[in-house]
């Protein structure tokens, strides 16, 4: 609640459209399942970045072509799996790019600011009692 509330407040303060639906699912992972590989910072930033690039590219190259949403979502899923940066909520970003009234180019700052804000709150939250290790430490070789 605090994470989405903070992003919503930041949205009002900056007049940027920061509240997008995929962030609700990101918050579930960040605060409810912080040990999940899907909730790690690399997955969040990488998954959202890749999905945003693909969604914006599809929106610019094929404006108004509804089936490009399916192609862009599929490409995002495949790319995240290939790069091992899967973050399921990011799979919805191409739909936002192709179907929302937000101009596609605004998705880059929208998603970056939202992700940084949510990750900062998650880092703070998981350091409060009862402490939870976040981000999850990778095994050392």
What's the helical proportion of residues? 55-70%
Radius of gyration: 15 Å
Structural category is mainly alpha
Report the span from N to C terminus: 38 Å
- Mean pLDDT, to the nearest integer, reads 93
Total discrete domains: 1
Spell the H/E element sequence.
HHHHHH
Biggest sheet character: none
Question: How many strands appear in the DSSP assignment?
Answer: 0
Spell out the key features of this protein:
62% helix; single chain; flat; 141 residues; mainly alpha
Explain what this protein looks like in three dimensions.
By secondary structure, this protein is an all-alpha fold. The protein has one domain (2-125). The chain has 6 helices and no strands. The chain has helices at residues 2-14, 22-32, 41-61, 68-83, 93-99, 107-125. The relative contact order is 0.20. The mean pLDDT is 93.
């Amino acid at each position: 609640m605090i994470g989405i509330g903070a992003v919503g407040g930041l949205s009002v303060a900056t007049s940027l459209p920061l509240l997008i639906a995929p962030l609700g699912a990101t918050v579930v992972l960040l605060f409810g399942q912080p040990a999940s590989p899907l909730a790690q910072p690399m997955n969040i930033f990488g998954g959202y970045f890749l999905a945003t690039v693909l969604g914006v590219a599809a929106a610019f190259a094929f404006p108004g072509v509804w089936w490009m949403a399916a192609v862009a979502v599929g490409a995002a899923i495949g790319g995240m799996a290939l790069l091992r940066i899967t973050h399921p909520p990011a799979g919805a970003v191409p739909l936002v790019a192709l179907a929302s009234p937000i101009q596609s180019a605004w998705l880059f700052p929208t998603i970056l600011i939202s992700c940084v804000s949510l990750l900062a709150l998650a880092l703070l939250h998981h350091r409060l009692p009862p402490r939870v290790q976040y981000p999850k430490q990778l095994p050392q070789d």
